[in-house]
TrEMBL record:
GO cellular component, one term: mRNA cleavage and polyadenylation specificity factor complex
Organism: Gossypium barbadense
PROSITE patterns registered for this protein in UniProt: WD_REPEATS_1 (PS00678), WD_REPEATS_2 (PS50082), WD_REPEATS_REGION (PS50294)
Pfam families referenced in this protein's UniProt entry, alphabetically: WD40
Protein name: Uncharacterized protein
Keywords, comma-separated and alphabetical: Repeat, WD repeat
């Protein structure tokens, strides 16, 4: 057990081929360090400067703006899906408004709220009288047109700089901006099949747009001056436009070609609208006159001299019998087709610049004025 190590190493049997030798290798097989490997270069004798230290974390410092503790703010949103789901649950068991649950002025009654389409007998449920949010564009300029997309989820604005801006209609945040026209946008309208949008600008150009805001066609010489308004016929095969060049034009949508030009206004034509079911056009302009046209023949049928200043907006009602007109004389008039005036509405203190009928309640409409006020009206 105790003896010469060299003699013990000689007495050990040699391993056979393929046999693993256990234990440390013999001394003669171990590599001895050389003098060159044990000598260090002079550059390693003195270590370099230590790396710079990171500054301590400061939650309120400017160097860590992304990690700054921000104040919690509540963001408003409009979500109508809960009312639609509730309406789908109970509509099979309700015959009419007599079976409907009466709404109570308590927060707990919000679960019984239904969409406006369920209250056809009560137009007051459609009054949008509560302010929700203000959205600001990066490029501060005038907004000439505002239009909802067919799905109602996004809002498109046409600006003085010729840009389309898309906003989310539920959370009110910015989504996309697009340089659509070279000049100020004056008119926008969606087709009835919700597949196409047509826009016009100050230079008289008309452009076609798809749902994804892809521009597919341009007519730069549609009018000689600003295109003030656009409107589609019921079949979407044709549309009409009016301009400051005193003309109303009827266009073939597929070919983007002019079919006829209606000349009868003595001044700028500010608004035009196509009848919901017939080939009738109504237009109003700076000559204070509202005119009714036959779109097939281009013949003027009659004129209404009810306003004392420029007619800024004309709209057909969904029943096809009422014509709503507004002018700079601060008066709104409802006229029955080929009959005397039905009713006049006074209340605005500035020029009435916008009108819109409600899609469900035919007697309910909204007007907007130059001073920023919005009025809700009921006919009758």
């Amino acid at each position: 057990m105790y003896g010469d190590p060299q003699q013990q190493q000689q007495n050990q049997p040699h391993p056979q081929a393929g046999e693993f030798q256990r234990g440390p290798p013999p001394p003669q097989m171990m590599r001895q360090p050389s003098a060159s490997s044990t000598t260090l270069n002079s550059e390693y004798h003195h270590p370099g400067a230590p790396p710079p230290q990171m500054p301590p974390y400061d939650a309120h410092g400017d160097n860590f703006a992304a990690k700054r503790m921000r104040k919690l703010t509540q963001r408003r949103a409009v979500d109508y899906t809960s009312t639609v789901v509730r309406y789908m649950q109970i509509r099979m068991s309700q015959r009419d408004s007599r079976d409907r649950t009466t709404l109570q002025p308590t927060p707990a009654a919000a679960i019984d709220m239904l969409p406006t389409a369920a209250y056809l007998d009560n137009p007051s449920t459609s009054f949008a009288a509560k302010f929700v949010h203000t959205s600001l564009n990066k490029n501060r300029c005038s907004i000439n047109r505002v239009l909802w997309t067919p799905t109602g989820r996004r809002l498109i604005t046409g600006s003085q700089s010729g840009e389309f801006t898309l906003w989310n209609g539920q959370s009110f945040n910015f989504e996309m901006i697009l340089q659509a026209h070279d000049q100020a946008i004056r008119s926008m309208v969606w087709s009835h099949n919700d597949n196409w949008m047509v826009s016009g600008d100050d230079g008289g150009a008309i452009k076609y747009w798809q749902n994804n805001m892809n521009n597919v066609k341009v007519n730069k010489s549609a009018h000689k001056e600003s295109v003030r308004d656009l409107s589609f016929c019921r079949t979407d095969l044709k549309f009409c436009s009016c301009s400051d060049d005193t003309t109303v034009k009827v266009w073939d949508f597929a070919r983007c070609q002019e079919e006829r030009s209606l000349t009868g206004h003595g001044w700028d034509v500010k608004s035009v609208d196509w009848h919901p079911t017939k080939s009738l056009l109504v237009s109003g302009g700076k000559d204070n006159v509202v005119k009714l046209w036959d779109a097939k023949t281009g013949r003027e049928l009659c004129s209404f001299h009810g306003h004392k200043n420029t007619v800024l907006c004309v709209k057909w009602n969904q029943n096809g019998n009422w014509v709503l007109t507004a002018a700079k004389d601060q008066i709104i008039k409802v006229t029955i087709l080929f009959l005397p005036e039905l009713e006049s509405f006074r209340g605005h203190r500035k020029d009435v610049t916008a009108l819109a009928w409600h899609p469900f309640h035919e007697e309910y409409f909204v007007s907007g004025s130059f001073d920023g006020s919005i009025f809700h009206w009921l006919v009758g």
